[in-house]
Amino acid sequence: MLATPGTLPPPAQDARWAYETKQDGQRVMVYLPGDGTLLLRARSGEDITAAYPELGPLAATLGDTPAILDGEVLALDAEGRADFQALQNRMGLAHTPALASHRAARTPVHLVLFDVPYLAGPRMTTPYTRRRELLAGLGLNGPRWSVPGAVVGHGAEALRMTREHGLEGVVCKRLDSVYEPGIRSRSWIKIRNTRSVDVIVGGWLPGKGRLSGLPGAVLVGRRAGGRLVYAGRVGTGWSEDERTELAALLAASASERCPFDPVPRIPGARWVLPRLVGEVGFSTRTRAGLLRQPSWLRLRPDLTPEESAADLPEDL
User: Fold this and answer.
1) Which residues form a coiled coil (predicted)?
2) Residues 197 and 222: beta-carbon distance below 8 Å
């Protein structure tokens, strides 16, 4: 079940919603069959259990009670806040367990668990409030995993608190909502404190001067009716190492064909296959739908273009 980007519910409906801190990590489904084993699956369905060996002891926490838990893997900074860049060093290592174990010693992860669609039987039609009660009753607070709190009502205050503490935002969840597997539902609404969007990279412009040989800017788009519509160029937000890494990814995706429809007039543009997803911060949109003052926030290797929320708003 996925959250839909949006805004806080109207004040008159505030008490019908719970508010949880929006996590900034890799979404996982945790399968505990009750036989002492553990299986972690990414949103793509890939088995990523071996990428996070430090979560192995979770397998024994519920004894012989079978369960499926929904959660997110985080890498935490010194202040206990999620650091997605640090997590990127842990992702993609499911097929290299030795390297995963080595990095686990340097950058251990923490698993937050926020739903239980299965507990000794399906719970998907059980209301959110009851699922949260069941989850809280499991006592899943260990050295590398926990169940974060949720508040009912007071959405504006919850969002303000996350902003003041430098957190990503909140997820609003309707109290009577059922669990909808694989669906981006309006029963869950995500709100980021920074105004940001998912974008799909469709091209780039070569850098100049000290950036010679590197991308000076990437050309990004958003989906609309089966097309990739140009949304602007992004030229800031990378460290030197990140820009070098991006250059390699762009080279591996090179294409002779422009993926945008309609084709924008951009002299010197280099096109790529539209398979890289990024997150971009911005101030506002122009009337044409282009992002104003965009800045690169992060690459999203955990998302395919189809899984991302890189869709144009319906009012554009």
Assistant:
1) none
2) yes
DSSP label of 305: T
- Average pLDDT taken over every residue of the chain: 93
**CA 159 → CA 121, 168, 190, 314, distances in Å?**
34, 9, 11, 25
Domains (range + CATH), the chain? 1-23+149-193 (3.30.1490.70), 25-147 (3.30.470.30), 196-299 (2.40.50.140)
Task: Look at the block and give the residue holding tokens 């974008």.
Answer: 199
The span from the CA of 198 to the CA of 41, in Å, is 22
First to last CA, the chain: 26
The structure's pTM equals 0.70
Which of 22, 173, 190, 208 is an active site residue? 22
List the helix and strand counts (H, then E) for the chain: 5, 16
What 8-state DSSP symbol labels residue 156? H
Q: Decide if 190 is catalytic.
A: no
CA distances from 55 to 138, 234, 239, 304 (A): 17, 37, 31, 25
Closest C-alpha among 126, 179, 180, 133 to residue 152: 133
At residue 160, the 3 state secondary structure works out as: helix
Report the C-alpha gap between 60 and 221 in whole angstroms: 45
Output the CA–CA distances (angstroms, integers) from residue 241 to 11, 202, 248, 298, in the order listed. Answer: 45, 21, 11, 13
Q: Which amino acid is at 273?
A: L
